[in-house]
Amino acid sequence: MIESRCGILCSECAYKEQMGCKGCLHIDKPFWGDNCPVKNSCESKEHQHCGQCGEFPCALLKQFAFDEKQGDGGKRIEQCKCWMQCT
What we know:
Blueprint: H1 15-19, H2 37-44, H3 59-65, H4 75-86
């Protein structure tokens, strides 16, 4: 089951319940800012998740995945690969 555009597993997010977040598949605006450029890019191309994009993994997704403070060391990229195999 796809949980996000970028590959983050929302079900494992510590902020989901605390912030009342329904996940980017079900919201227009993220709780942490005005918009999410990864979500916007994915949705503008009418993809369910980044793994469906011909540019996957793009520089923007890599920037988010490997960010020193907010990144996950590329786990979200691997999750998108998993979702591609399942769809």
